[in-house]
C-alpha cells in the first residue's frame, strides 16, 4: 500500500428533511453575512430556495443571493460573485445545487481570500492560500464536490475548462437529502451515476496492485451505483436508490477510494474537460463517451488490472487471456452505459466534431504539447488525438 493522507473535514448531514437544519449549521460557523449561491432555477421551481431562506431567517442569519450558475460554470459569474461578496462583506458561502454551483462557490471563495486574478489558480500559475468557508445543500448526486478538494471552472475566453485542487476549499458541511434529487431529469441522474463510477474508476485504474481493502470498496461502490442507476431509470422516486447513489457520490470523490493508490489515472477526466469546455456537454455523459476508447487504448499497459475489473465489477469469468477478459469488461461497461441511455461515443453526445476540432481538442488537452496525462499509460498529444478519433 502506498503512503497516503486522508483528510475529510466535511460534516455530513444526510437524510430526509435535513435541509431544515441549514440555518443552524450556518450559525455554527459564526459568520456575519452569507452568500446563497445557486443555479439556473431548479431550486426555485422546487421551492427549496424558499425553504433555505426561511431556515436562515429563523436562525437570524443575514444573506444575499446570486443565482445563474450554469453547468460547466463560468468564470464571468465567479468575478461577479467576488464583486458582490466584497460589496456586501460576505464571509460564508452557501452553495445550493450541484457540482457547478459548489465549484463556482469555491472559486468565489478563493477570489475573496487571495490577491490577484482567481483564474491564475486554475491555470496553475499560483496556488491558493485560503478560501472562504463553504457550506453545501446538495441537489444532484454526481460531481462529489460537496466533499472533494476540487473546483472546475470554464473560462469563456478560449473556452478553457480547468480544475484547481486545494484542501482550503473543502466544504464545512454538506446537507444531503436524497429526496431533493427526485426532480432531476433522467439524463442528469444517469450522467451523475457515470461521474460517480468514473471517480472510482479513475482511482482504481492505477499502477499499484497492493490495496485489497480499497479495491474492495471501489468494486462494491461501482456495482452499487450500477444496480441503483438501473432502478432509478424505472423508478426515479425510489428513495433507497436515490440515497445509495447520493452517498456513493460523496465517497467516490472524498479521497477514500484513492487511499493506498498512487492517485490513479484521471486521463478520461482530462479528455472530457476539453469536450465540456468546447461543446458544453454534461460532464458524466462526456466521460461515458470517451471512457471505452481510452480503456481500449491503454488496455495492454495493465491487462491484469482490466481483467480484475472485468471479473470483480462486471462479473465476467476470468479466462487465461487477460487482454481478452479485459476487453470483455470494457464492452460490458459500455453496454451498461447504453442501458442507462448514456453515450459511448462523441457522436452519441450529439456532436459531429470536424477534423480541425479533433486536432484542437488534442492541442487543448495537452496544453499545446506541454503536458502528458494518465498513469496507466502516459498519454502525449498524439495519443490524445488518437483517443478522440477512436471516440468520434
Ligand atoms: O441550474 P439548475 O436549474 O439547478 O439545473 C441543474 C443543471 O442544469 C440541474 N439540477 C441540479 N439539481 C437538480 C437539477 N434539476 C432538477 N432537480 C434537481 N434537484 O442539473 C444540471 C446539472 O447540474 P450541475 O451542477 O452542472 O451537475 P453536476 O453536479 O454533475 O456538476 C457538474 C460540474 O462539476 C464538475 C464538472 O466538470 C461540471 O463542471 N466536476 C467537479 C468536480 C469537483 N469539484 O470535485 C469533480 C468532477 O469530476 C467534475 O469535473
Ligand atoms: Zn467527474
UniProtKB/TrEMBL annotation:
InterPro entries: ADH_Fe/GldA, ADH_Fe_C, ADH_Fe_CS, BDH-like. The keyword Transmembrane helix does not apply. Keywords: Oxidoreductase. Residues 9-178 form the Alcohol dehydrogenase iron-type/glycerol dehydrogenase GldA domain. Gene3D superfamilies: 3.40.50.1970, Dehydroquinate synthase-like - alpha domain (1.20.1090.10). Residues 189-391 form the Fe-containing alcohol dehydrogenase-like C-terminal domain. It comes from the Bacteria. Pfam families: ADH_Fe_C, Fe-ADH. This is Iron-containing alcohol dehydrogenase.
Amino acid at each position: 500500500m502506498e503512503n497516503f493522507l486522508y483528510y475529510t473535514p466535511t460534516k455530513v448531514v444526510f437524510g430526509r428533511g435535513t435541509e431544515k437544519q441549514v440555518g443552524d449549521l450556518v450559525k455554527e460557523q459564526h459568520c456575519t453575512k452569507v452568500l446563497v449561491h445557486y443555479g439556473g432555477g431548479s431550486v426555485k421551481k422546487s421551492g427549496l430556495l424558499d425553504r433555505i431562506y426561511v431556515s436562515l431567517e429563523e436562525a437570524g442569519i443575514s444573506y444575499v443571493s446570486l443565482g445563474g450558475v450554469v453547468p460547466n460554470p463560468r468564470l464571468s459569474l465567479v468575478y461577479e460573485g467576488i464583486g458582490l461578496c466584497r460589496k456586501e462583506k460576505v464571509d460564508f458561502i452557501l452553495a445550493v445545487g450541484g457540482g457547478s454551483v459548489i465549484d463556482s462557490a469555491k472559486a468565489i471563495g478563493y477570489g475573496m481570500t487571495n490577491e490577484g486574478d482567481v483564474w491564475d489558480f486554475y491555470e496553475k500559475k499560483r496556488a491558493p492560500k485560503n478560501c472562504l468557508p463553504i457550506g453545501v445543500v446538495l441537489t444532484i448526486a454526481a460531481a462529489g464536490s460537496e466533499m472533494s478538494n476540487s473546483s472546475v471552472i470554464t473560462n469563456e475566453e478560449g473556452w478553457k475548462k480547468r480544475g484547481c485542487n486545494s484542501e482550503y476549499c473543502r466544504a464545512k458541511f454538506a446537507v444531503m437529502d436524497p429526496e431533493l434529487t427526485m426532480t432531476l431529469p433522467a439524463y442528469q441522474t444517469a450522467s451523475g451515476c457515470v461521474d460517480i463510477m468514473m471517480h472510482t474508476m479513475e482511482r482504481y485504474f492505477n499502477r499499484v496492485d497492493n490495496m485489497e481493502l480499497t479495491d474492495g470498496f471501489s468494486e462494491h461502490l461501482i456495482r452499487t451505483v450500477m444496480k441503483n442507476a438501473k432502478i432509478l431509470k424505472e423508478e426515479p422516486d425510489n428513495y433507497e436508490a436515490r440515497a445509495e447513489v447520493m452517498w456513493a457520490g460523496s465517497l467516490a470523490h472524498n479521497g477514500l477510494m484513492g487511499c493506498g493508490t498512487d492517485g490513479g489515472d484521471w486521463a478520461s477526466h482530462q479528455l472530457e474537460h476539453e469536450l465540456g469546455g468546447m461543446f458544453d456537454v454534461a460532464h458524466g455523459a462526456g466521460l461515458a463517451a470517451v471512457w471505452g476508447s481510452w480503456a481500449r487504448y491503454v488496455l495492454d499497459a495493465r491487462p491484469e488490472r482490466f481483467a480484475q475489473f472485468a471479473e470483480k465489477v462486471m462479473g465476467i469469468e476470468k479466462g487465461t487471456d487477460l487482454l481478452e477478459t479485459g476487453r470483455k469488461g470494457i464492452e460490458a461497461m459500455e453496454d451498461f452505459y447504453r442501458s442507462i441511455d448514456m453515450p459511448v461515443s462523441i457522436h452519441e453526445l450529439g456532436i459531429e466534431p470536424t477534423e480541425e476540432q479533433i486536432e484542437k481538442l488534442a492541442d487543448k488537452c495537452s496544453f499545446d504539447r506541454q503536458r502528458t496525462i494518465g498513469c496507466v499509460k502516459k498519454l502525449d498529444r498524439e495519443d490524445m488525438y488518437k483517443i478522440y478519433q477512436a471516440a468520434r
